[in-house]
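pasting for the record
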Amino acid sequence: MLCTLLRPTSGRATVAGHDVATEADQVRLRVGVALQEAALDDRQTGAEMLALQGRFYGLTRAATRARVAELTDLVDVGSALGRRVGTYSGGMKRRLDLALALVHDPEVLFLDEPTTGLDPVSRSRIWEEVRRLNKELGMTVFLTTQYLEEADELSDRVGIINRGRLVAEGTPESLKRAIGTDVVVVRVEGPVEDARRAVRSLDVVRRVDTSGGTLTVSVSDGPSAISPMAVALSRVPGVTVQELSLRRPSLGGRVPLRHGGAHGRTPPGRGGVAGHGGRPARHGGVMTTTDERGGIVRAQPRRAGFAGDLVSVAIRALRSIPRDLETVVPALIIPVFFFVVNIGALEPVAEQSGVRDFRAFQLPVAIIFAVTGVSRASGLVTDISSGYFDRLLLTPMRRTALLLGLMVADLALVMALCVPVILLGLVVGVGFTTGVIGAVAFVVIAGLWGLAFTGFPYAIALRTGSPGAVNSSFLLFFPFAFLTTSFLPQQALTGWLATIADYNPVTYLLAALRSLLSDGWSWSGLWPGLLAVLGVGTVSFALAFTALRGRVSRG
């Protein structure tokens, strides 16, 4: 809720001076979040992820490069920044996840169990970075952890949550004083009983236990009790102090015993909360500023704007296409296969049914097979399951740009897929009576149809988060593809098939594309196809954006 992934069901909370419910965008600009599980995209490189994160916060390329250079020591992956994240070890992923949360130099940093699963060296490095962020940059750090010694080590204030309730809060020292006393351990030579009486007479001493030549002294304030104790023992005849040490209570063992429930442990998933105080909230400003405490150039985040968000999402999606060829190649092989087979098997039959040029008649069918159902919906499912979708929601980007950017990439892809199919058609003798401009219009209309259909797989992806459900979305196209004029002209269809074809939008889409090949420029042939594209697109986009709103509201 504090990070704005979930809306509060009741009450009110502010982060960096802004209400998390009514000013969520302002909160996102000012916070960085590293979730419990590293929320990364395995298909991108570390450098690409850092650059993309900077663009979502409106940073220039120069500002992003500067921030990445500053974070290089923290990420500590060497040349691996140029490798895909999927090749990283668990520790490297956790460090990159933290670096992503810091790219825009947030005012408040939320760390959800940042050292879980890290080796001691990596954990120490994270601790050092948390201290530096707080002390040198004045960044407030809100840290959740199951390791109470980590809270003791890092925090200015600690809260302990048990079964959803805050059961204790304060500085580490105040919590330790509340649950136990300091202990001074003294090892002496000489009359132990005389030493015990001397120590017990001091006002700061609560209790003294003896074991052999060792005194265990409970005191309210260990540091202030050591000097009087040493003086008192030095005045006891025959007593020599051999060792004197202070033991202070630790959060690690006894705070849960007093505050964490009947069994004295913080249950899994309900750990403590620790925080570092930091600088006051910043408001607005230019892209970068010079810090008064040492000339550090700081990135000032701002909303990138709808166009900037759209382009950033589209570039990421287009970049992933060559890395995901197994999802693209079938979209090219299947239409080419059907085109060649249909020409060889059905051309004589179709010519008897009144089709003058069956190859030109079939080319639009191959194109429709190539562009329908091609989307980045499977990649969106991967983002949801990996947590990267949540990371995107934590940025100030427009939510609609998250989906529209993917669709823009889909439009570019399906238009590119048209080219090799059209070239094959030209090779076998298909021509455009409308010339080059007609060929361009042909590609554009086919691309718009492919775009119109993408809403269906995206709606399924956002509602289910299931790869299997998304893969089966292509089945939606089968009635469109086969219950129409794919193989015979409309006048040759009879019975129920003719009736369904009359209501099938693909019938009018195919007629529009065929008119550009054989009939020349004819508005009466084009507008029904464009209207069919518009109708299907309206339905699919409505479903997709409704599903997006539902996914965002569910967090």
